[in-house]
Amino acid sequence: MARSKRSTPETHVAPTGELRDGFKFRSGRLCLDLPASLVARLKAEPKDLLETPHDLGRWLVAAGLAAKDPKPTDEELRQARELREALYRLAVARLRNEDLDTRDRALVNRWAAEPPPAPQLGPQGLTWTSGGVPSLLAAVARDGVELLGGPLAERIHNCEGEGCALLFVDTSRSGERRWCSMSGCGNKAKVEEFRRRQRGEGG
């Protein structure tokens, strides 16, 4: 029967918090959280947190898209990195009011056209039908299309923290959010400002 072939919803509680299994989720959108997996991208030696297929599996779990490691292949890891960088370049273009690169748009649109995992209402809230890595990447790409093609694109900001390349969506009423995280870069900036004032008073 066709019914027996349907994927069973994976019941799990989606992870929360800014830091999950070594990854940062500070942007408010999956399509900007994926680019955050390349740490210190503005520096001479950035660190790729998606170094192995297992790392990608961990990210998908941390992002709340999968209940357990979906066991990505080497090719799926390459595709995820490719999607990640296209999303980052498109977001930066939106931030700078520049034209969107045709190839990056085509790549994101191609992924967004893939069937995404289906949301289900489970006993503990939102769950997802089990799907392969392509469907999970499709969900990220669709989030990118919705963000970059919608009114919130104007709210994409770059963190003002020194050396921080993280992008985020400013949903504050004032529209004056400066940091990817108040507990992270915001706190560091406040501490540095306090030290500067102390040094000034001491002089």
TrEMBL record:
A Pfam family recorded for this sequence: ABATE
Top-rank lineage group of the source organism: Bacteria
Gene3D superfamilies: Jann2411-like domain (1.10.3300.10)
Annotated transmembrane regions: none
SUPFAM superfamilies in the record: Jann2411-like
Domain Zinc finger CGNR: 155-198
Stated name of the protein: Zinc finger CGNR domain-containing protein
